[in-house]
Design a protein that fits this description.
With about 750 residues, the protein is α/β, with parallel strands linked by helices. About 50% of the residues lie in helices and about 15% in strands. The chain contains 21 helices and 21 strands. The strands form four sheets. An eight-stranded mixed β-sheet has the order 14-21-20-15-19-16-18-17, sandwiched between helices. The chain has a six-stranded antiparallel β-sheet with strand order 3-2-10-5-6-7, with no helix packed on it. The chain has a four-stranded antiparallel β-sheet with strand order 11-12-1-13, covered by helices on one side. Helix 3 crosses helix 10. The chain is flat, with a radius of gyration of 61 Å. It starts with a helix and ends with a helix.
Length: about 750
């Protein structure tokens, strides 16, 4: 988080300037922007279902009435016709302006000393022609069109005829104090004014379950807004009353017409009823039909009883034919007492017979007596059943004849009843319609006189005590946010537009190589490229840390001979020579013999940094085949342990010279004499020199310059690391600008601490 905030805090002056400018702009915006107030009112819409009289009256004419739909009423209130009527009644197409204390011109409404009344419709050119009116006294005023037209004097209430129309000017307060300040008058198209009011007007339900509407609008003139809402609600109530009155009057006219028709039809139907009763000899078809129906019902019940008795006799016969081996019929279900007695006696005798059969011999006299009694009883039952069946058959035939007779009587009744009911139904319909129309006529007369209003003003128009727009706190808060976001956005845009390495994250994320060391940007006051390592400066301390960490940068298989360090980079100008010479100087201060090879044969820098003449004999001479002279290795004047082999004259074919094999013998001999051999090589992205020399190196330092090296070269660094073309590849970030570094932190914290 500190690294994230650091890129903003180091540019604090941008934020301070942006905040001051934004707050100043907010102040002037609030000062010169007209305040906007909210004007509100609450209107109660009565539902039609609460008073059914009118609904029922209208239903007579239009069909069933439904409840008033609140959404439709909202659209009626916001309708263009209703708002246009308000515009005309309040003369809102005329606006008045006077010089203000803050703004040059401020619109006035009720405070205007004059009022302009349009007599005829204005031409379109009136909407682009402002008028300047100067009150001279209580009788006269001076009129000026536009800005350069000559002035003319008129009397109040006198018709003023201009090219775009005719109007009158009158004083709003003839008896009060006289305001002689000039008044600017502008005309607007009434349709455009109505459209503006319709757009700003809001109507919403106070409670979703109720019918209370809140009307509101935003305006710079609270008095004007209250007048608009008040007149709008008044016109809405009048339109409802007119619509209701028109509907009721139409319904009354329809009722009277229908009454005349129904009265004639009802007289005709009543005569038809009288004629039918006389012709058919009918008194009351309903009573006659009920008597016949009850007789048929009783006859059917008797037939069912006889049928049940026949079924009972069938059961008894079946039992007798089975010689008592079947199931005996239930005595309780038999209504004949004589048959019940015989069956009971038979059951008792059969019980005694069964007892004697188990206890006596077949020739026993008591057993024979009981068997004879059983046979006699069975015979008596059989004879009784035959006789009873004959009697029941006779009764059943008589009942069937009676049923047929009653059925014939019932069949004639529906026809007569249907014919009579048809006539009677017509009479009932006409009577009901007649009574209903009489009732509705009385209800309409009463309702028309006592009907309450469909809407009621619950809260008269009122304006908010403070402006709702612009919000002072909101504007200042927005300005503060703008003062913070604009510089932050600029910083982010600048960072996103840059393709240079900005942070460790750019190296470690894209190249997958950790940063081995950081070197701060050279102080502006330091003219030489050699760092004074005897001082406790940041850059000197960083080179000492780099020197101390060399043991962790050793390549595999390193011998006890001198270590070879190769220094390269992506492009020219990243500070390879600066890192090479100062690293060598840092090692030389530890009494280590260090030699620097100026192998950047095309653009040598090392000898110049150390004040040597690189044009004399050097590496280029040795690589072309000349024997190695003692003057090839030169001792520096800055430290006796630091030696340099300059590049020599710039050759025409440096890459071919490095490939001829003589560098191999040179490195081998130097390893035996020096503790460290540092090779300053050309950039790897442009030349193959560094790749050719990598086989002699024990450690490779790859220099990346902060805010200079393009980020796309990090892919090259990643390829070099993955291919292991350079032994022990380590990244040194040079010229780190800590105030602009997103995640470089050593030097920035170190600079703020005391020296030790």
């Amino acid at each position: 988080m500190r690294a994230f905030l650091a890129k903003y805090t180091r540019n604090w002056y941008w934020f301070a300037l942006a905040i001051v400018v934004s707050l100043a702009g907010a102040y002037f915006y609030l000062r010169y922007t007209p305040p906007v107030y909210q004007v509100s009112s609450v209107l109660l819409i009565q539902k039609e279902s609460k008073d059914p009289t009118d609904a029922e009256i209208i239903a007579t004419q239009k069909g069933p009435a439904s409840e008033k739909i609140i959404e439709n009423e909202i659209e009626v209130i916001k309708s263009r016709n209703l708002i246009r009527r308000v515009v005309d009644e309040l003369n809102l197409s005329v606006a008045y302006f006077q010089p203000g204390a803050v703004r040059k011109q401020e619109e006035v409404y009720t405070k205007s000393p004059i009022a302009v009344v349009i007599q005829d419709s204005l031409a379109p050119e009136a909407y682009t022609t402002p008028l300047q009116i100067q009150v001279l006294n209580r009788n006269q005023f001076e009129l000026q069109e536009g800005e350069g037209s000559p002035a003319a004097r008129y009397s109040f209430d006198q018709p003023v005829k201009r090219s775009f129309g005719t109007f009158r000017v009158r004083l709003t307060n003839p008896t009060g104090s006289l305001d002689t300040r000039p008044v600017a008058v502008t005309f607007s198209d009434p349709e455009e004014v109505a459209q503006s009011i319709q757009t700003s007007l809001k109507a919403e339900l106070v409670n979703q379950k109720g019918t209370t509407l809140k009307l509101s609008m935003e305006t710079t003139l609270p008095d004007r807004g209250k007048a608009i809402l008040g007149r709008l609600m008044n016109d809405y109530a009048l339109s409802l009353a007119n619509d209701r009155s028109q509907e009721v009057n139409s319904a009354l006219a329809l009722i009277d017409e229908r009454l005349r028709l129904i009265t004639g039809e009802l007289n005709s139907v009543e005569k038809n009823v009288e004629s039918y009763k006389s012709g058919q000899g009918i008194t009351d078809l309903s009573t006659e039909g009920n008597l016949v129906f009850e007789a048929a019902k009783a006859n059917d019940a008797k037939m069912n009883d006889i049928q049940f008795q026949v079924q009972t006799l069938d059961g008894v016969e079946k039992y007798l034919k089975s010689n008592g081996s079947g199931v005996a019929p239930a005595v309780a279900s038999i209504n004949d007492p004589m048959l019940t007695g015989l069956l009971t006696k038979l059951g008792d005798l059969q019980g005694e017979q069964e007892k004697y059969n188990r206890t006596t011999q077949p020739g026993n006299p008591f057993r024979q007596t009981v068997e004879a009694q059983v046979q006699n009883t069975r015979k008596a039952i059989d004879e009784y059943v035959v006789n009873e069946r004959q009697n029941l058959q006779v009764m059943q035939n008589n009942l069937k004849a009676r049923s047929n007779q009653l059925t014939s009587s019932l069949r004639t009744i529906p026809r007569k009843e249907r014919e009579f009911l048809t006539i009677k139904r017509q009479q009932a319909i006409k009577e009901n319609l007649y009574l209903l129309l009489l009732q509705k006529r009385e209800e309409a007369t009463i309702a028309h006189a006592s009907k309450s209003q469909d809407s009621r003003v619950m809260d008269k128009p009122y304006a908010s005590p403070r402006p709702v727009k612009p919000s002072t706190s909101g504007v200042y808060l927005l300005a503060l946010f703008a003062g913070l976001l604009i510089p932050a956005g600029f910083i982010e845009a600048r960072s996103a537009a840059s393709d240079k390495v900005k942070s460790k994250r750019d190296i470690e994320t894209e190249a997958k190589v950790p940063v081995f060391a950081e070197i701060v940007r050279k102080p502006k006051g330091q003219r030489t490229n050699l760092v004074d390592l005897s001082t406790p400066s940041i850059i000197a301390e960083q080179f000492r840390m780099l020197r101390a960490n060399l043991q962790y940068a050793a390549g595999p298989g390193q011998s006890s001979a001198g270590r070879v360090i190769l220094v390269t980079s992506s492009v020219s100008g990243e500070g390879k020579s600066f890192i090479s010479v100062n690293l060598a100087l840092s090692l030389a201060t530890l009494n280590k013999k260090v030699v620097v090879l100026e192998l950047d044969l095309r653009k040598p820098q090392i000898a110049q940094y150390l004040g040597m003449d690189w044009t004399k004999s050097g590496l280029s001479d040795f690589l072309t085949g000349q024997p190695m002279a003692d003057s090839l290795v030169r001792q520096s004047v800055v430290n006796p342990n630091l030696y340099v082999i300059p590049s020599g004259p710039i050759p025409a074919n440096p890459t071919e010279l490095l490939s001829n094999g003589r560098i191999d013998s040179l490195i081998a001999s130097l390893r035996q004499e020096y503790d460290f051999i540092i090779m300053d090589t050309p950039p790897v992205s442009m030349l193959a020199d560094a790749s050719l020399l990598s086989e002699y190196a024990d450690t490779t330092f790859y220099v990346v310059r902060h805010e200079y090296t393009p980020r796309n070269y990090m892919r090259l660094l990643s390829d070099l690391h993955d291919s292991q073309r350079f032994p022990s590849l380590n990244v040194i970030v040079n010229a780190v600008n800590y105030p602009n570094g997103e995640d470089f932190g050593y030097g920035y914290a170190y600079a703020s601490s005391k020296a030790y």
